[in-house]
Write a structure and sequence with these properties.
The structure is a homohexamer.
Chain A lengths: L1 E5 L3 E6 L10 E7 L1 H11 L3 E5 L1 E2 L3 H12 L8 E2 L6 E5 L8 E5 L15 H5 L4 E5 L2 H4 L1 H16 L3 E5 L9 H11 L5 E3 L2 H8 L8 E2 L2 E2 L1 H15 L3 E9 L4 E9 L4 E3 L3 E4 L6 H14 L4 H15 L11 H10 L8
Parallel strand pairs in A: 1-4, 1-9, 2-7, 5-6, 9-10, 10-11, 11-14
Antiparallel strand pairs in A: 2-3, 7-8, 12-13, 14-15, 15-16, 15-17
Chain lengths: ~350, ~350, ~350, ~350, ~350, ~350
């Protein structure tokens, strides 16, 4: 199984433990980014995982690539050039104090990449799946154009496509997002995104009767999913269902909707170590399970288990195996020691 | 808004994480002390915060001052001299193991300060508020006398006064505490303290019928507050209401009583990172909100939110802004990431 | 009170915090092993604690001995020789991710020890208690034979004997375990072990009607204990009762059964810092309380409190005093600060 | 003595010890920048030190300001705005491996500042000295224009001016540097810079006969200094004289030239802890000594001692007192313990 | 250029800085081993580097493989199986205290590998060079036999062969080493080893007149090299020349001898960060330079520069590029900052 | 060989590496004190080492005792009581920046001990040697009196006595020191101290002709030693000879003078890791060697080698064996790896 992911890779700088920004003069320096997170998960699951981005020629970016290689991700399609890689500063919340993110990603190598930078025919030839997110087209007009090049090539090579819509208000307006993303939706087979994203970027509104204070009813989610399928022709729609109790505790599950049929996963009560990348781990789990030919209920359970485990792991990347996710599906997570 | 706080600043030495004392040969070295904690909070809230103490002429004390300056606290009124600064060793508890404190504060520069050390007229001229605690007069007879000097000057300059009564049995006896503290109460506008302190130092007893196994009923707290107002002429009485489930989990709220009227805050379930300084953060929040002219209910909600957030932050000092406390009042702390 | 414990001491290598194995290039290097853990607890409780093992002549083993000495454990009976000490790698779980152990203990000095290595008559002369576990005889045939030598000497010197049965499937088969362990049972006064161990090594089966999905009913545990007493002549049987909610949260208590009478401790909800050694701390608490002449109910409460506190402490060793365990029995663990 | 410094403040990210970039996932996060380094030194020496820059409104920049405040630097003139603060990554060399710097400073708040941002009349009113470097005008045309505004105001207010020329080839070309910097030289009283900088930016060439393989002869340095004075009207020229033996060991001294007279300091053999900021510490020492009215020989000795001590201190900032520098001048650095 | 290296990979556990073993409970956990070190260097130099070994199926070994992948080393030929990977404990010396190594490598997966484990024809097909050391045949008779299989395949495929003789007295006797290693010498093109190794394993003795107290004269080294060539038919002999002044300071250079002609490198005075792997870095540099077609003098200078830089880098692996080594050859290591 | 040492044990708090005080909020917390340092060294050498002091009943003091036990020091004679243990803050120097010590030792348990606290007859019965320093009598009049009690008992039991004179100007005046120390000298067999101490406390002056800028000539040291022997009746006088080049580099050796005969050790050039405790390690080495019956030249070489090795070890305590010191005597410290 060969999966190509495309997006921006950022240097992540976070204080240790629950310290506030620069409370002590030490930062944990790791890497991450939605599509890279998906790519690493897939490599850990044993897939051939090809990650595509653009990074400058310096030691920081090289370290990012080296770490991807350590997971077995194919980094040979990464273009080198540009002035800098994006950075994000992360302060992990605790109890009633929320996590905090400061982005310093403008002018990054991938945002400055020009159309034609990547030979998508060569990259996607032989691939089974292509995954991207709504963040990449938001980086710059050129990045959006490169995404369109990738989607056209995916279609030409018969590659299935997933999109994690992921609206980021600090990158573009709702209007621009809609204008750019809607035409891309025709290429997408698996749509991943919450009701809020669907509304803000794709103009789908849930029935007012199904709107709760902090989310939608099941019927509301299903209505949104069905509308997405009706409007954009997706084969399936998936969304994670997070109940945020505090920065330390969340409930988490997901729905996979295949048209007229909704599959809900078990819901887990999670004591959070690091929630960044939880959604990406879910996406990776879903892509893996679907490519592996699993049934929808099994697929969503596997994907949620993968995402749940991510919350117990430091850093953006989900360092788990297929066996570990399956064990969680089986046991429900009672926490016995593995000897 | 200009607030003066006066008290002892200690070097705090704590093992990392949940280690026991010297389980590993590394100590986190920070600073704190009730009134300094209040002063730092106020500076973070944007107030002109003047902290008064006495510290020796050495690099450790200088580092303590430098850190206060980093928060924007005015340290120009700090007297230098004496042999040492007080130290406290803190071992943070977890689960069923309580936190543990070892004090090594005898013979400190402030305990050895002589009356007349501080020019209180100059210090309090133009100030809006003066805050002290029951710990300072307990340090030495001279420290008590200096406190009396400050209170007299506060009255002379029309400065409002708050006192966090904070009885410490390891510093003095109940009898001595009562003899020293009661005459100071006439200067106090806002009294902050629990029912236990009120009983031990000020001779106020709750109605027996309102005494529960682990605290008082609401009516009991209100009775104590009303008695305090009746006896000592306070304008308001505030106390935090902590339910200690374990060293890791507490429920926490507060009451502000303004004479015949009790205002109770929301109660928060807190997963604790570091509880030291929680009460001081509450005091600072209350002083800020009252000086800012907020209504009693708003004031106690703001103060409790500030105190709740402190529990998620390492060290004595509360590193939060007015906006962060207000956001918690607004959201109730659902833990969503701030991007 | 003089207690001798005998077993293997391992170097424990664990990533910091909740990191996965070698996610960062740093390992916490401490020491532990069931019987050493019991011995350290007993020394901390003020007992004369003699620990017997065999360790190679190198700096790593010497550091292990030095740490035992730091607790006041008598290490003068430890034999030196062999090529290596056993190692175990520990990854601490969190939330739904279980802890993970990798053993690298084969060919250790104690596994290669020859019968006659220890002068058990000299070691046990004057001792009040001898404690061993089912792990030691599993290490090698010679180790089993040495254990038999110890048991014979214990009987000769009138020393009471406890055994923590602790079946480890990665060390030997159920059949071999049964063949080796059963004859040793006649020497045992206090048997410590779960129903599963009793079944796998000693052929005791609970009534089918008392088997629950995740354990037994109280009646089931009592039936197993009574059968053990009937079959092997133990004076008492103890087992801890763990309900594993997740890797972060467990409920925990214990039963002490003295023949026809079961004593159940309070059950604690534990937020886990480090669960390794919890059972050993219980064993140590029980031995201490029984040697101290406490009544069964008091003994099991003390032992469970000791074990509960262990879960809040990093490392295998339980760094608590008798007073701390007794305080927990008294207060139930409300987490107030000890000043 | 009131000194104003103006320039860019950067976040400095460096691996611990002698590790290469991201060899371990931890970075020391401190702050620095030539003019801030000078400002911090001056504050440590007891001067009124005002630092002027522009920084964004985020927690990272606020931490930078807080640290300046901790040293007693006046930060009230710092403008807030823009998108980011500059970053530099530093890898400290050792033995034959040189230190390595990666800049990520483009698009910083100060580079994007507009003329008129700072009220130089207010800032420089009452000041005794203004210090800038050749790096600031290189950041952007606007930054150059702001520098010109500052210089005009300095002249108007009779403020003495020093410039550390510091040519950086990665910021601008030699031609542009010359065109921008030369007109600024007329405002400068104390010029600090090496012969290479003087040649590249200011067109001064040493006599060919005085050029050595790795620097100039004393006569060569003096010739350059005299030419600079003749051409630009400086009152004095200073340059540090570094002999780089390896990344671990340097010899270091300086010359102060006052027109026809050269003053050479003692030369020190330095075992390097952190060499970044050594030159800035020299500049600060020189400014301090000259404002303090010391004679040229004393001034250069003091300045070099300050710079030498910087090499023993981690981070950009020189954490030393006047007394420590003077003690080094007196003793020559024999390393006896100060008790 | 495609190079295959074969040997044992060990987990390296070292206290931080200059601490003695377990002085603090923290160990730096990295990986290394002579041939892996050579392989990593070659990958860093841009070669196709294939590393062959056998490692168990556990997370520790997987982490070792992942790190090799991060450097771009081809790990697809590594066999999985066996019970454990070897460990070595390293305490870094300082001043007059020497470094100390404790090996715990017996029973490792590679020592227990059986002949036929590796398909050497497939592995060496298309390779340009094969490198092994005298340590691997010393691990076990089977490991020696596997080495012989590799050498035969290398000859069959026309692959050039280098051997770093590296006699280890703790692994085998001088007699056994000679018996095993001598027949392997006929396959070797480039022999790397000191005079002592040559004497102990290969029976070559220097002329008595050329023996100094701490090594040989140049004529002595040349005599040994010529004898080696005469006896075993090597095309070239290389040896590093280390003068150990203390654990902190060494002088270091090398000789490459091509038959009748000796090429000596520059000698460097090194202030040591970590000397482990210095010789391996030299070997890698030499292999690279020779495969790159460089002349003997250039080759030995490049190889020594690579080895010198290794001494400034923590860990076994040499994290440098071709450009960095060449820069050192060019500059001699004056330690200027690279910006 | 049984040796008793008596003095104050302090908590030592030091920033990591070469950081200045509280540059980062982390302190290394270890223990030390002249006589404890001697006692630990002797225990490491295999002697029965009994350390006598007074420490409070708290967890910090208990940790200090536990660490002594880890080395095998007999701590059963330590009295418990008092309010605090002394603290010293240590900042390690580098290059031209000297190390810095801040003492916070007043009011310590040992300074407040009363005469009669220790049963010296029981403690010294069977001892071979008693060691004290001039610091202990300086702590308080009672501490001086306790020292006199010890000396009287030593004489009564025929125990040999050594004194490290160690004048500390911050503890007492030269006059008081002389008045207290001189009468104690009659009990001393081995006097350890520099010429400066001898002059300040004991009134011995070197011939003016033998005074150099930074010490004395050999003849000068010998003259002082002979005068000491003549005046006080010592059997031997020893002093270390330190040449302080910088905080990073010292030359170090020693003289042992036995009356008319001076024995000088080899002089070592030391690159310093941590110099605190170097003199104590020398004292311990000398006591060990003399008790072991070694000749003066061998004894001083052994003692100096022990002290030299200390300079390479973090912390006050010298973690070396007899074999390691002897190896250094043999090899001169060429720094080869011990495998």
């Amino acid at each position: 199984m060969r999966v190509v992911t495309f997006g921006e890779l950022l240097l992540r700088l976070a204080p240790e433990g629950h310290l506030r920004f620069l409370q002590e003069p030490r930062l944990e320096a790791t890497f991450g980014g939605g599509e890279a997170n998906v790519g690493v998960s897939l490599a850990e699951f044993g897939a051939q995982s090809v990650y595509v981005t653009r990074l400058p020629e310096n030691d920081i970016a090289q370290a990012a690539i080296n770490q991807l290689r350590s997971f077995g991700v194919d980094t040979t399609k990464i273009a080198r050039g540009g002035d800098r890689m994006g950075i994000y500063f992360l302060e992990k919340g605790a109890a009633q104090r929320p996590s905090k993110v400061i982005y310093d990603r403008a002018h990054s190598a991938i945002a400055q990449a020009k159309p034609g930078t990547f030979d998508w025919d060569a990259i996607l030839d032989g691939a089974d799946w292509f995954h991207f997110s709504g963040i990449t087209p938001a980086l710059s007009d050129d990045a959006a154009q490169i995404t369109r090049e990738a989607l056209a090539a995916a279609r030409a090579h018969g590659v299935r496509v997933s999109c994690d819509i992921n609206y980021r208000a600090n990158l573009w307006s709702r209007e621009k997002a809609g204008a750019v993303m809607r035409p891309m939706m025709e290429y997408v087979d698996l749509f991943i995104g919450g009701a809020e994203d669907a509304e803000q970027e794709l103009g789908i509104t849930p029935p007012a009767s199904e709107v709760l204070e902090d989310g939608l009813t099941h019927a509301g989610y299903e209505s949104v999913a069905q509308q997405l399928i009706d409007t954009y022709g997706f084969q399936a729609v998936a969304c994670t269902l997070r109940e945020s109790i505090s920065a330390s505790d969340n409930n988490w599950g997901a729905m996979l909707y295949t048209g007229n049929q909704a599959y809900y996963s078990r819901k887990y009560a999670i004591h959070i170590v690091d929630r960044v990348g939880g959604g990406d781990s879910f996406s990776a789990g879903l892509i893996y399970a679907l490519l592996d030919g699993r049934q929808p209920q099994d697929a969503v359970e596997f994907a949620v288990a993968a995402g749940v485990l991510k919350h117990s792991i430091e850093g953006d990347y989900n360092r788990i195996t297929v066996q570990e996710a399956e064990r969680l599906v089986r046991t429900g997570g009672n926490g016995r020691v593995s000897r």
